[in-house]
Amino acid sequence: MNPKFLFPLILVSTLLISTSLFSQSRKYNTVNYNENVNSSLTNAELALINEVYGNTANENILDKPQRLKDIKNILRNRVEIKNLPNPSDQKQCTLLSEVPLLDYYVSSLQRDTHFNPQDFNPLKYLFNYNSYGTHMYRVDNTNYFIIIKSQHK
To answer: Do 117 and 96 form a contact (C-beta atoms < 8 A)?
Structure first.
């Protein structure tokens, strides 16, 4: 083959392979949303956001449509709380008390002294929401487990 044509051929081949790999990578990393993230925030959800982000809630969440959608996805679709009273259904996992608080925005943010699944705020904790796979945490001294579902399918 003529060397004059070899370099352009290699360059085009490399670009095609890179583009193909990039598009596959983007498909793999796409966050899957339930349609419910398109509806408005409820007052309860807004209260959860304000508890963690305080006076920076607008700047960090509410004025950023994609970030708001991510938060709604966490609150509505990705956090599940289960009561598993049967010890054979329970498995060893990280305790909630071992998960750091997200107190960057509100330095006075406190852990709940009593766990109530109806008003639990998962945004208060530095759960790894971006990891692959589902993760489970046990609420200390209870039969409650917090399940964080993967954003990747």
So the answer is: no
Strands 135-138 and 79-83: unpaired
pLDDT at 153: 64
List the chain domain ranges: 1-30, 31-148
Tokens of 36: 């419910």
* C-alpha–C-alpha distance, residues 10 and 16, integer Å: 10
Structure-token pair, residue 105: 């925005």
DSSP character for 31?
Answer: P
Distance (Å, whole) CA 116 – CA 43: 18
Has residue 119 got a pLDDT over 70?
yes
Q: Mean pLDDT across the stretch 86-100?
A: 87
What pLDDT was estimated at residue 42?
95
**Mean pLDDT over residues 39-57, rounded?**
96
DSSP at 100: P
